[in-house]
Design a protein that fits this description.
The N terminus is likely disordered. The longest helix is centred in the last third of the chain and has 29 residues. A two-stranded antiparallel sheet has the order 1-2. It is elongated. With 154 residues, the protein is mainly α.
């Protein structure tokens, strides 16, 4: 399996090797790319949900699920905005610009929605949320980049 050229040592959505003239490429190429995009979306959503689950202890709610949903929804909306604005499905594994952009937009839109709905924006929450989302949304992409570099033929 090769990758679409994306600059020095930056992982991108995998593609099949070039097909020989007169042949068709592997039918799994689209499925492989779709799997990579799906995995990236799942990892991003899990990052936001982990942040919300960690913060639920400071919020009163009838159930833990309600508390997590109440904390997560603005950031999940921000994450969706980030994926569309960045067209993240094109290169979902790269830390820059997708990871940093996803972090920035997820946090900014999430905080704007919290402010618009009357939720708190305490300074410690602003700092902790920014650092946690940075560590997770950019962090897993840095790990993916390192793994891609280590697995690349030399």
């Amino acid at each position: 399996m090769s990758t679409v050229p994306s600059g020095p040592a930056q992982p991108s959505v995998p593609s099949a090797p070039a097909a020989a003239p007169g042949t068709t490429p592997e039918p799994s190429t689209g499925r492989t790319a779709a799997r990579v995009v799906t995995l990236a979306v799942v990892l991003d959503v899990v990052s936001v949900l982990a942040f919300a689950a960690g913060g639920r202890a400071s919020h009163a709610a009838d159930s833990p699920l309600t508390a997590v949903a109440g904390i997560a929804w603005p950031f999940l909306a921000g994450l969706a905005v980030a994926w569309v604005v960045l067209r993240a499905w094109r290169r979902p594994l790269v830390p820059w610009p997708v990871g940093v952009g996803a972090w920035t937009l997820t946090w900014a839109v999430g905080m704007a929605l919290r402010a618009a709905t009357g939720e708190g924006l305490a300074v410690p929450f602003l700092v902790v949320s920014a650092l946690f989302l940075l560590a997770t949304l950019v962090g897993w992409r840095l790990v993916a980049t390192l793994v891609a570099r280590l697995r690349a033929p030399r």
